[in-house]
Predict the 3D structure of the following.
Amino acid sequence: MLTVNTVKELKSAVKSAREAGKSIGLVPTMGALHEGHKSLVDRCRKENDVVVVSVFVNPTQFNNKEDLRTYPRTEEADKALLEAAGCDVVFMPSVEEVYPEPDTRVFNLGPVAEVMEGPMRPGHFNGVAQIVSKLFMMVEPDRAYFGEKDFQQIAVIREMVRQEGFKLQIVPCPIVREADGLAKSSRNVRLTPENRAVAPNIYRLLNESLDFAKSHTVDETIKFVTTGINAYDAMEVEYYQIVDGITMQPISAWTDTRYAVGCITVYCGDVRLIDNITYFKE
């Protein structure tokens, strides 16, 4: 596995692969890697000749400076996981390398970025579009892999790709969960033992709502999940919305869409957890 820290080294590595006629897959990450990330690398490994993984905590997508400061950084463990997973090139740049000057680009990402995480984290999706577009320009991958835990982010990236005219395939990959159902996340390590014990109830209630929804309205289903989670002292729902899985716009009736997804954000103690579940997809 080749570890590179500069854009020049990265471009040189992928240029050689491309000149040899090899397909290139990219897995963008912010490090603190876990089995969820490994599943993306595994998928990328199966579908491409060369696997490139970026490990970079991108400051422009954090609207909370404390969240940026406390975001876990585990470079040596990340490299060990990636090497074991068959990564070919890992890109671990400094902030100065990625942003030699401020990125002042403002993306008009439209309605997919104006709901849920959009208003809750002002500027977040613009920062995501900045870093992902930079990585796409550096690597020029054939395919890029993203986890469905960040469900809305995938829709935003698709819109950015459409607007910028990138020629690549966006590959969404299923959520990887702990044995008790909690979605794997780099933030889970910040949960206290007590909060870690109750956090799996997020997915439990989402899962139970699948049956509940069969005989209840959208609003009743939202209330079922929200009330159930808020019954735990350690947890508070920031939002739970059931949306069209393509447009990300909230639905008011099950007949409003052919693809219904419930997206949730929960504060478990002071740790912000996200998850989602699909009610149906025709």
User: Anything to note?
Assistant: Strands lie at 2-4, 24-29, 50-55, 89-91, 143-147, 169-173, 235-244, 259-268, 271-281.
